[in-house]
Design goal:
Blueprint (H helix, E strand, L loop, with lengths): L1 E2 L4 E2 L13 E5 L2 E10 L7 H12 L3 H4 L1 E10 L5 E5 L8 E3 L6 E3 L2 H5 L9 H10 L13 E2 L4 E3 L4 E3 L15 H15 L7 E4 L5 H8 L3 E7 L5 H12 L3 E5 L3 H4 L3 H7 L21 E4 L3 H5 L6 E6 L2 E8 L5 H9 L3 H8 L8 H16 L6 H11 L5 H7 L3 E4 L4 H9 L7 H11 L16 H13 L13 H7 L2 H6 L10 H15 L24
Helix pairs in contact: 4-13, 4-21, 5-17, 9-15, 9-21, 11-13, 13-14
Length: 544
């Protein structure tokens, strides 16, 4: 526990004080806590002491040099400032409420929610979660509970934005994307090469995690979720063998999908627990430090940029070239994987009287507009919107509560590369060229669904395989959710009291289970669940 003149904060972290990890400090300057992965310039080993002392000299600029995936809490005697700050991309959530009369904040949404005397459902928040799998912006499922925006800080009476995450694309003459990315990747990996204890990596057969394995010598264990005969597992095992690392594949049994407390808690009621693929196997991850490649595709390979497409046998196939005039809402709908038919079926089975298509489009348009001032172009604004609402972040949140967890993509130098590189150069080709400058053998084993250098050729071959008898298709990287849902009788076990939703897709049923489970974990009176009743039995005006 740390107590300053303005705030009190506590931390539970068995690795507090480990190099590159959480740190706390109290001195004449005040008190400071940094939770998560943090690196500072020079030889100072305590990031909290460095930040407090630097803040006394440089003010808010001190946060520009703090590197990593963190939340920083500062109560500075010298200036009278007290605040909680996110890293530039909000890779760790901070929730807050003013309901008790004094501003309360923390990283566990349910714990902060318990301080709210009469919580009310946020209609828009719940609808966004059910139809998109993520609550957009700063909302939560509860009206009185908010979260810090991307690149911001919370003070006792306000929320203030920083300018650490603002797009500033450079010309090729001033900034070579491949050279810069290769150099910054090597620096970021060096920073993360001395994290404590036994080291492992969550390994896919794709591109992103293998660059970590190629440069962190301490990693001697790798893990993949999937059956032994799956293409993804076979590919990951080949990559692990290439770098002399043991490999363990966890079978996709009921632990993969089951949204129990070990997963739902980390969904925070704002994002799907489905993304925490490893949660059911946590006790078998025999490491102290865990590495992963989360968001490398987003920051380095243009996951949220809009591509031109061509029609191949009535299917739109991306060409790998940027769309010169994208429709922001259409592009976001494509990226988030919105299903119009499934959402209509869901709307018919819950008590919300809305047209889901209109609602989702309006919500995405509003969120895109809210991010527009950080980007000069539509393509960069799309990336900013995607990063600010990244649905897979519970993956990292869960890991960080169990291990010292390295987050390569959140390195400040790499974030700056993303902001300085034009969207046309944030591509898989740029990323792979940079990686091969670091390790010229990194593509010895290609991902099973990407046998060609060309994005278009990979897409076309995948389509042809799916449509041609006697040709095997590329397998998806993750296990079949529908088959697992049926095999382990989750309709009865998870939703036995809600037979009217059993015909929905498994992903939508998991969202219902996530939200209900998260609300029940802190609202014992079940005041927040009327939307789950069938429409014919629902109150006419659920939200009062």
């Amino acid at each position: 526990m740390l107590a300053g003149p303005t705030l009190t904060v506590g931390i539970r972290d068995s690795d507090l004080g480990a190099p590159g990890w959480s740190a706390a400090y109290t001195g004449d300057e005040g008190c400071c806590l940094v939770w998560g992965e943090a690196y500072v310039p020079g030889d100072e080993s305590n990031a909290a002491r460095w930040l407090l002392e630097r803040y006394a000299v440089a003010g808010r600029e001190a946060l520009t040099a703090l590197n990593g995936s963190y939340l920083a809490v500062v109560d500075a005697d010298s200036s009278g400032d007290a605040f909680v700050a996110t890293d530039p991309v909000r890779s760790r959530e901070c929730f807050y409420t003013d309901d008790p009369g004094t501003r309360v904040f923390g990283t566990d949404a349910a714990a902060i929610g318990r301080t709210i005397s009469e919580p009310t459902l946020s209609r828009d928040g719940v609808l966004e979660f059910l139809h998109l799998g993520v609550i957009l912006g700063e909302k939560t499922a509860v009206t009185e509970l908010r979260r810090l925006p991307i690149d911001s800080r919370l003070t006792p009476a306000s929320v203030e934005s920083f300018d650490r995450f603002v797009y500033d694309p450079q010309t090729p003459a001033a900034f070579d994307p491949v050279d810069e990315l290769a150099e910054r990747l090597e620096g970021a990996l060096r920073r993360r090469s001395a994290l404590p204890g036994r080291a492992g990596v969550l390994l896919s057969a794709g591109y992103d995690s293998r660059i970590i394995l190629s440069r962190i010598d301490a990693i001697d264990r790798s893990y993949t979720v999937g059956s032994l005969e799956a293409q993804e597992v076979r590919g990951a095992r080949s990559v692990a063998a290439q770098y002399g690392t043991s490999h363990t594949a966890f079978p996709p049994d009921e632990r993969y999908l089951r949204p129990d407390e070990s997963k739902v808690r980390y969904s925070q009621g704002i994002k799907e627990s489905l993304h925490i693929h490893h949660a059911g196997y946590t006790d078998e991850l025999e490491v102290d430090t865990m590495y992963h490649g989360l968001l490398c595709d987003t920051f380095f390979r243009g996951h949220f940029t809009a591509s031109e497409t061509v029609d191949v046998l009535d299917k739109r196939v991306p060409t790998g070239r940027l769309d010169p005039d994208p429709d922001p809402v259409e592009a976001l709908l494509e990226t988030v994987g919105y299903s119009r038919d499934a959402s209509r079926a869901l709307a018919e089975r819950t008590s919300f009287d809305i047209d889901p298509d209109t609602f989702v489009r309006d919500a995405l348009a509003d969120e895109f507009a809210a991010r527009r001032d950080r980007a000069g172009t539509v393509q960069n604004a799309l990336s900013c919107c995607g990063i600010a609402n990244q649905p897979s972040m519970p993956f990292h949140t869960h890991l960080s509560d169990h291990f010292v967890t390295s987050f390569l993509a959140a390195d400040r130098d790499l974030i700056d590369w993303h902001l300085l590189t034009p969207p046309a150069d944030r591509t898989t080709d740029t990323f792979l060229r940079a990686c091969t400058r670091i390790d010229d053998d990194i593509l010895r084993h290609r991902p099973p669904d990407r046998p060609h250098d060309s994005t278009l050729l990979n897409e076309v071959e995948g389509f042809v395989r799916r449509k041609t008898p006697f040709l095997s298709s590329f397998e998806p990287p993750w296990p079949d959710r529908e088959a697992l849902f049926e095999r382990y009788d989750f309709d009865r076990r998870l939703l036995g009291d809600l037979e009217h939703v059993h015909r929905l897709p498994a992903r939508y049923k998991l969202r219902l289970t996530d939200l209900r489970g998260w609300l029940e974990c802190w609202d014992s009176q079940a005041r927040l669940r009327p939307w789950l009743r069938p429409p014919e039995r629902a109150a006419a005006n659920t939200f009062g």
